[in-house]
TrEMBL record:
Protein's recorded name: tRNA epoxyqueuosine(34) reductase QueG
Underlying gene: queG
Gene3D superfamilies xrefs: 3.30.70.20, Leucine-rich Repeat Variant (1.25.10.10)
Keywords: 4Fe-4S, Cytoplasm, Iron, Iron-sulfur, Metal-binding, Oxidoreductase, Queuosine biosynthesis, tRNA processing
TM region(s), chain numbering: none
MF (Gene Ontology): epoxyqueuosine reductase activity
EC id: 1.17.99.6
Endpoints of the signal sequence: none
Stored PANTHER family: EPOXYQUEUOSINE REDUCTASE
Length: 378
C-alpha cells in the first residue's frame, strides 16, 4: 500500500473513533528539547514524575527500532461543568482540575491508540508501533508541537485553535514513513496573563515551569505541604487550572464533545468533610476511575484538610480533633493540627497542648506548634 493513501485512511479512521486531532512528525531526535531538559535538571525544575533519562525522552529510535514517524493525537475535554454544586458553610467543597473530570484520560487515549495500532497492523503486517500517553518517555507536548497539533504556549500547554489548551495528548512511534505536518506558529503574542496570575510564580518565563512550585504538582505530593503554598492552593484538592482559565485563547472553548469526560459534579467538586473519614475502599470506589486518584487517598485527604482550614470550617473540628488524636500517619495528623490552629475555637488550644505533650514525631510537633502560634495571633 502507498503510504500517502494509508496516511489519509488513518486520518479518516481517527475521526470515526473520536480522535479530535491527529498530526504526524518524523522520528528525528528532539535536539532543542534535549538542551531545555538538561537546563531544567540543572535548575532542579523537574517534578520527578517524568522519565529521568533525557536520551530516552528525546531519541525516539531508542524506544522503537527503525522508528521513522510519530503519530500525535489530541482529544478535547470540557472546560466547564453543567450544574456545578456550590459550597456553603457546613458543606464546603473542593475541586479537581478539569483534566481529572470524567474517565481517566490515560485509559481513554490508550484505547484510541490501540485502535490505531490495530488499524495499521491490519493494513501493513510488518508495521511496528509503540504508543504512550503522559507516562511514557517522550514529551507529549514536544511531539504535539512538532506534529502541528498546536503551538507550545507560555503556560507550558499545547494550545489548539479549535479546543484551546483543553486537550489530552498521546503519540505512537512507528516504522512507517508518514509525511510530516508543519508545526504551528506561536500565537501567544505579547500576552503574559498566565505568567502574571500563576498563584505560586511557578511559570518562570514563557514556556518554562518550575514544577516544584506548581500547584498542580504540589497537590500530588505525599509529604507535608510547605507553608508558603498552603494558602495558595485554596480549595484545590488535585491539580490547578489557573493558567488555562485566564488564557484568552481558551475563551468560549466549552468542548462538551465526549461522554467519557463529562464530569459528575459531586465527584469533580466533592464535599470536603467526607474526605476526613473516607476509607481506602470507599475512595477507590468513588474516585478510582478518575486520573486524580492515581496517587491514592493520602494527598487528597491532606489537601482537603488544608482547604477546610482555608474556609475556617468550624463544622470540621470534631473530625480534625479525632484525626489529631488517632491517625497513625504523621502527615495527616500534623496537617490536622495545623488546621485546628488555623480554624481556632474554644477547645483548640487545650487539644493542641494535650497533643503536644504526647506527640513523638518531630515534624508533627512542629505542626502543632504552628497551630498554637495561630491561636496566639488571634
Amino acid at each position: 500500500m502507498i503510504v500517502n493513501d494509508l496516511q489519509a485512511e488513518l486520518i479518516e479512521y481517527a475521526k470515526t473513533i473520536g480522535i479530535d486531532k491527529i498530526g504526524f512528525t518524523s522520528a528525528a531526535p528532539f535536539i532543542e528539547l534535549k538542551s531545555l531538559l538538561r537546563r531544567q535538571q540543572e535548575l532542579n525544575f523537574q517534578s520527578g514524575f517524568e522519565e529521568s533519562d533525557i536520551e530516552k525522552r528525546t531519541e525516539p529510535n531508542l524506544l522503537l527500532e527503525e522508528a521513522q514517524s510519530i503519530v500525535a493525537i489530541a482529544i478535547a475535554y470540557p472546560s466547564r461543568m453543567e450544574n456545578a454544586p456550590k459550597g456553603k458553610r457546613g458543606e464546603r467543597r473542593g475541586i479537581f482540575c478539569r483534566a481529572s473530570w470524567g474517565m481517566d484520560y490515560h485509559t481513554v487515549l490508550r484505547e484510541k491508540l490501540a485502535l490505531l495500532e490495530a488499524f495499521l497492523q491490519e493494513k501493513v503486517p510488518y508495521a511496528k508501533m509503540r504508543s504512550m500517553v503522559d507516562t511514557g518517555e517522550l514529551s507529549d507536548r514536544a511531539v504535539a508541537e512538532r506534529a502541528g497539533i498546536g503551538w507550545s504556549a507560555k503556560n507550558c500547554s499545547i494550545i489548539t485553535p479549535e479546543f484551546g489548551s483543553y486537550v489530552y495528548l498521546g503519540e505512537m512511534i512507528t516504522n512507517l514513513p508518514f509525511a510530516p505536518d508543519e508545526p504551528m506558529a506561536d500565537q501567544c503574542g505579547d500576552c503574559t496573563l498566565c505568567i502574571d496570575v500563576c498563584p505560586t510564580g511557578a511559570i518562570v518565563q514563557g514556556g518554562q515551569l518550575n514544577s516544584s512550585r506548581c500547584v498542580a504538582f504540589l497537590t500530588q505530593t505525599k509529604g507535608f505541604l510547605p507553608d508558603e503554598f498552603r494558602a495558595k492552593i485554596g480549595n484545590r484538592i488535585y491539580g490547578c487550572d489557573t493558567c488555562q482559565t485566564v488564557c484568552p485563547k481558551n475563551k468560549g472553548k466549552l468542548n462538551w464533545l465526549h461522554d467519557a469526560f463529562k464530569p459528575d459534579p459531586d465527584i469533580a467538586k466533592p464535599l470536603l468533610e467526607p474526605f476526613l473519614t473516607i476509607s481506602n475502599r470507599e475512595f477507590k470506589e468513588k474516585f478510582g476511575h478518575i486520573s486524580g486518584s492515581w496517587r491514592g487517598k493520602k494527598p487528597i485527604q491532606r489537601n482537603a484538610i488544608i482547604a477546610l482550614a482555608h474556609f475556617k470550617e468550624v463544622s470540621a473540628m470534631p473530625k480534625l480533633l479525632e484525626i489529631l488524636q488517632q491517625d497513625a500517619r504523621p502527615v495527616i495528623r500534623g496537617t490536622a493540627a495545623w488546621a485546628i490552629g488555623k480554624i481556632g475555637g474554644a477547645e483548640a488550644e487545650e487539644v493542641l497542648q494535650a497533643a503536644l505533650q504526647k506527640e513523638q514525631d518531630s515534624e508533627v510537633i512542629i505542626e502543632i506548634e504552628k497551630g498554637l502560634a495561630f491561636l496566639e495571633e488571634n
